[in-house]
Write a structure and sequence with these properties.
The protein is built from 8 helices and 9 strands. By secondary structure, the protein is of the alpha/beta class. A hairpin with a 2-residue loop joins strand 2 and strand 3.
Amino acid sequence: MTSRPPGAGPLPLVLTVAGSDSGGGAGIQADLKTMLALGTHGMSVITAVTAQNSLGVQGAWELPEEAVRAQYRAVVDDIGVQAVKTGMLASAVLVETVAELLAAGSAPVVVDPVGVSKHGDALLAASALESVRTKLLPLATVATPNLDEVTQLTGVRVRDEGDMRAAADAVLAYGARWALIKGGHLPGAAEAVDLLTDGAEEHWLRAPRYDNRHTHGTGCTLASAVAAGLAKGLTVPEAVREAKEYVTGAIAAGFALGGGIGPVDHGWELRR
């Protein structure tokens, strides 16, 4: 491991606005691990607390709007931020609160429109979908929905790679600057293929599909890795490409934990 030299400049600053995963595989915990692994300083605004393990979500408690607003202001007003990632926002009230806060800033925003957990547990109220569409997506530098989230938000069903273009167009229509459509759940695909586009240029990102069921936290990890890249000053395509490489390695190294689905390994590069 390369040590940080004395007198080195400040680390890039990345803020995650998301829910807590008590099992440590996803949510705020995955975000902060990713940000550390990629050489940035991670900070957090917790929107909800979950009782969660490898078997699923046993309970979730949304934080008050005032607590979310206070956390955000405490970090941004004193420390500052160079990129923001949003994850589980739970309710329309919190979506709109977070959107209001982000709209007043200038840092790039990566929106991971979390709808359900890896185990199928709902993490966003159905009543909040319209707020995500109209308040949050227009602020997104990059939106990173998986195929289920695309359908939930836009109604577009992705059955093959061709449908991924239509899905991206539907996300971009809500105002996101770039759409990253994650094809990890694409049936029958030999590779894990994602599409990044701003409507003018397309980047198809392909990686091996590993036979590893321990993939908890994949979406959080990818979005946080993109935010880390943007905080370092990378372009969106550069940040997404580096994030794809990082999360591919993390999936390959995913490990068993508890009796269900284990997490990806956020520190896989440190153990090579």
